[in-house]
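User: Before I run my own analysis I want an independent prediction to cross-check against. Here's the chain; please return only the structure tokens and, at the end, one sentence I can use as a sanity check.
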Amino acid sequence: MLRKMFIKHSTKTATPAKAKPKKKPPPAPPPTIPYPTFPPPKLFACQKLSVDNIYATGIPVEEIDYAAIGGGIGSFVWVDTLRISGVKPEQIAVLSVDKKPYDRYQRLCNNSQIQPLDRIRSGSDSCPDNIWGWPGYALRESVRELFSGNILNACKPLWQVFSEPLLATTYTPRLRDVFLSMDREANRIGWQQMLRYGRVLSIRQTDDDRYCIAYSVPKPRQLENRFVVARYVHLATGYPAIRFLPDIKSYRSQTGDFKSVVNCYENHEHIYEYLARKGGVVMVRGRGIAASRIIEKLGAIRPVSYPMTIIHLMRSPKFQGKKFGFTQRQVDNHWEMQVYNWPKSCLGGDLRAKLEAAAPMERSKLLQNWGGTTTSYRREWQQVIKKGLQAGWYLIKFGQVKRIKSNQNGQLLIDVRSKNVQEMEKIEADFMIDCTGAESQVTDNPLLNDFINHYKLPLNCLGKLTVNNDFEIREMRNYPDSNNRMGGRIYAAGIITLGGPYAPVDSFLGLQYSAHRSATALVEARATGISRLEGFSSLWQWFKWAINLPPEVSLNFLLFKEG
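Assistant: Structure tokens:
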């Protein structure tokens, strides 16, 4: 309406009232109207917004009970837990810029060379589609192979589960199987019905113990602004950004070259295509799970006709793995091995209980002892390294990149300084793939940065959001005016809570654990529409999951449905 009024007004004032042109000019294109700043600065400068003032803006407002911000796997697991706990789909809104909950994760996997049939770093019972964890991915895969007539392949996953890690390598599911199972569960719980496509810009408390969420929906020629007012909010925004180290930023800003030096989570298929055709020299930096995948890929495409050299740059040598108690990690060729990102007892054993009971400063020390860069042992990439070391086309170097520039031949000239060495080593390469990880500082996310600064929220020992043992941001609880009602609450999950009561927060099982804890807290708070999931109710919900029925289907429907 504002646009039409502006066009009408500008048309009237553009031509003088007494002017009578002999020939009607061709219609001019509509003027570009700058949209007002959204969310409204004056309104969102308040600590608590008036709901009446929100409606007075004329911007569409939707009132809902539960809002999940992020729309990734963390949001999916939380929403799935709500649904099987009795919450109806019309009570939930999921705010996301992706259509499927695993879209962003899939992009990162593809870019870091994890293909659909590759196995990921996760366990059989870590099932985002199934909070009970049974049947796990190993049993499902075994049944599929059995029905396909592959008896030996059907026995292998079961053997791995029962004999890991002493007699067999730890079972890990295929990426494709994880996505297919999530598609099935998303259809069952009505994910698309709950999805609100758009980018969240800001979150504020309201004066009636709820929260106002401002988000924009991209349209072909404009942005459509909207509000969601919810009582319970869940934040699972994932990694705030891809990490670009200072030397990469400097090289790109000076040269404008975004093809020769890349982060492994960027799309860099052109590098593999070039190396497969012509060979060359590629530097891989880092020694985590992403670096092992990249090296495995390079080994697979290594051309026969043209030489290709892999220079693997690590910050420092590693001859001995980390110790904790009586345990110590294995080290092979300066790679530190561990099945999962964290020791397995951090998932649900004594280390999980120890971390949850620890004080903030003690948590920092424990996480430092348990953490670190590791990768899982797999024969495929280990064979690439052994062959490369024997043949001389895989080279290990130690040091830190100080500067990247181009030489006269158009190659990269990388200055590397090793510890206790005065002179820099100059390494020539055609490409550099950085595998030092994704950025995890919460302030790099504009939404979280605004959220933290506006409410002066404290960060934990690792610079992430401070949450309690139920993964609630306690400082953001919106207390009601009446004692008869419980206040609004905001929960968080994923990497943005690292440093809190749980170590593997960005794993599948970690997302399930945080969703379970927050759902239990909502039941105790007498939140709308949610009930405790235990005993017969849990068994009944599992049965509906097994036969692929929506969570709200009743027993009477099954017994007395027509036909």
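Sanity check: The longest helix spans residues 508-524.
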